[in-house]
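Before relying on records like the one below, remember that each one covers exactly one chain. Contacts with other chains, cofactors or solvent are not represented anywhere in the record.
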Amino acid sequence: MLRLSRRRLLQGAGAAGLIAARPALAASAPALLIYDSRIPESAAFAAASHNPSRHDLAQGRIDPRRIAAVSRMEGLTRHSDYVALSLALRLQGMRRQDDRRLPPSISTRDHLFRWSLGREPEINRWG
């Protein structure tokens, strides 16, 4: 069971602030924000975002129709969740744009990744 302490909450808020300041990932607004409310750092990341389009992995799978409707996804999840999502989304035309493992000073409990996936532009091969 997850125990939420003041220290973990502050660590999560610090992680969210650090991640939000990343210029490479903040270049464009994400179309869909993916987070896990069971992880304080991930919940703080979602709370710090002004993006209304989001999905909590604790609530279950993402509806495939919702995935088809977006061109970009960003998240802060465990490495295992990131790998599963990126493999599934690759079949739908999404490709890795950026991913970074959070340093141990920010994420002490889980191996968390800040990642971004997007659709590649269609290339017209015939001219």
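Strands lie at 32-35, 54-56, 72-78, 94-101, 112-119.
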